[in-house]
Amino acid sequence: MKKSRAIAGSLIAAVGLLAASVPAIANADDGFLPDDAMSAFHHAAPAHVASAVAPDSARSTRLDDVVATVADHSVTIQSESGTLSLVALEETSGVRYQPVLMDGGSALIAVVIDSPSADNVFDFQALTSDGSRAEILESGAVAFTGPDGSFSGGLATPWARDSKGNDVPTHFEVNDSNVVSQYVDLSNVATDAYPVVADPWLGAELYGGVSVTNTSQGFIVTTKPSAWGRLYQGVGNIGMWWAHADEVKNKMPNPGNWNLSLQEQLYCHIAGWPVSENPNYDLESWKPQVPWQQQASSKCLSY
């Protein structure tokens, strides 16, 4: 799960032990069934989110060594190198939390806001087994970075929508206690446009499997972003592009074959649409090292 300039870490403490220090969640009985909250989420979710929801029968999802699970008001991703959980701290009148399993070893907590009188700030405690700290990226996404500079996971750029499909302004803030707060601006939501749905989407694996194909010219590294990892594209996330490179490199059969040419090709791809049209990233070892910005005119395909 961990991507780092120096990959390191072991499971320091199970999430169950960490959770003991988290304030108890108020389980107010507001008369709503969980299925109602799930229906509200499906109705409001953008296509890129809805298409990544795991089957109803799934109890966990996996990508490589990362496994995602959900529980009441919390989601967890776990691997041999650590555990990262997000726990909703409080449920108040007019607000429902619905954990949702997502493809690729990720999960989210759908926040269903039922009325204009409901709260508009939602707090989530991040629990990390390696002491990772939350930071906000330029894109509005959250990255969790360990004491050794490692990337251990993150929350994709937040979204919120009303029941009519209108986007609702929202953003994350974090504090020194690793509490992530999602603010949802309800001031312009029509009274007949509730519920409003928002979500913090937690993940750790930016890419699926990485394959290497040998050719007469050299080798080609092929990889595909996960549904969650694709949301960490774009220059707004440039502060963690190194984590993309680190993960791809360390998933290669021989990480020692990684070079700066491959890195710049990858950076061109993750700069995002319309720079690159290819859903899979093919990185060719024999190409000269060219800064990613200079590859943009060819959409990263040739230069």
Question: Roughly how many Å is the radius of gyration?
Answer: 20 Å
Derived from helix and strand composition plus strand pairing, the structural class reads alpha+beta
N→C terminal distance? 33 Å
Q: What is the molecular shape?
A: globular
Summarize the amount of helix as a percent range.
Answer: 10-25%
Mean pLDDT equals 87
Order of helices and strands: HHHEEEEEEEEEEEEEEEEEHHEH
Number of strands: 18
Number of separate domains: 2
Are there runs of 5+ residues with pLDDT below 50, and where? Answer: 4-35
> What is the strand content?
25-35%
Which sheet architecture does the biggest sheet show?
A: 8 strands, antiparallel
Instruction: Figure out the total of helices.
Output: 6
Tell me what you see in this structure.
The chain folds into 2 domains: 15-203, no CATH class; 207-298, no CATH class. The strands form 3 sheets. Strands 5, 6, 8, 9, 10, 11, 14 and 15 form an 8-stranded antiparallel beta sheet that branches. It has a 7-stranded antiparallel beta sheet with strand order 1-2-3-4-7-13-12. It is globular and about 65 Å long. The chain has 6 helices and 18 strands. By secondary structure, it is of the alpha+beta class. It starts with 14 loop residues before the first helix and ends in an 8-residue tail after the last helix. It has helices at residues 15-19, 34-44, 47-50, 241-251, 260-270, 292-295; strands at 61-63, 66-71, 74-79, 82-88, 95-102, 106-113, 121-128, 133-136, 142-145, 151-155, 159-161, 170-174, 179-184, 196-199, 201-203, 207-214, 219-225, 281-284. 15% of the residues lie in helices and 33% in strands.
